[in-house]
Specification:
Structural class: alpha+beta
Number of strands: 12
Distance between the termini: 82 Å
Mean pLDDT: 78
Number of helices: 1
Bound molecules: zinc ion
Strand order of the largest sheet: 1-2-5-6-7
Low-confidence stretches: 26-50
Largest sheet: 5 strands, antiparallel
Strand content: 25-35%
Shape: globular
Order of helices and strands: HEEEEEEEEEEEE
Number of domains: 1
Radius of gyration: 27 Å
Length: 255
Amino acid sequence: MAARTPRPSSRPSRGAAIAECLMAMTVSALILSVIPAFYVTSVKLWQRDTGRLGAVAQANIVLYRMQDEIRNARRTVLSSDGTSVTLVLPTQAYDSSLGRKVNVLNASGSLTDGDQIRYYFALDPHGTGSTGGAVYRRVTYAGGTQAPAQLVADRVYPHLNPRASGGSTPAPVFAYDATLRTITVTITTAEPKPGTGTFAPREGDPQCRRCRAPLVRVPTLEHLEGEVQCSQCGSEVEPTAEVVSYQSKLLLRNL
Ligand SMILES: [Zn+2]
């Protein structure tokens, strides 16, 4: 019986070598072209905008997270003080062909009540004596079981929200307009500035850098919605934190 000669392995190994070489070239090309740009960008962000980016991200997270759920909600229940909103979502089921949850109709072609999602502001949840708080999200499933509360945004200061329609009181965190069927979400976050100084408190509430008095929002002629100022020194101050307010109107779609 003729012994089976091993196939010359030059071709596959050359192919493999070429592939390996190509991969190495691709990888090194990526490193050469991408990493320096990424490195420079990240350094810039850290040096210039860390504080602002943090506050903006906090405010954005709440709005992005809520947007889809408010749009899809069948009903909403607001607390009278505007610190919480409960969204009753339609019954949903996972559609494997779409890879996401979709609303489910009953036999008569109507939506039915499903999970309830409650967004709420809690004052000083860490018990540190803060004048701010955090926004949480908590799901109560259609069966009645409740998921643990999730932190959505920290360092939220509703008393620094813009003045509601130029009036004297700050806009509530959540407000419902029955005529337009919209929910207005107002989030004011504060991020300590990184350059506050060695001896300055880094994690405390935003305050006046000069006299350490708390900040307030004061309506002015130029800004009817109010300017963030020191409660003692007025407008000519630099606060210890970057204060960012976001207000968005989100539309309810389902009936
Ligand atoms: Zn001051």
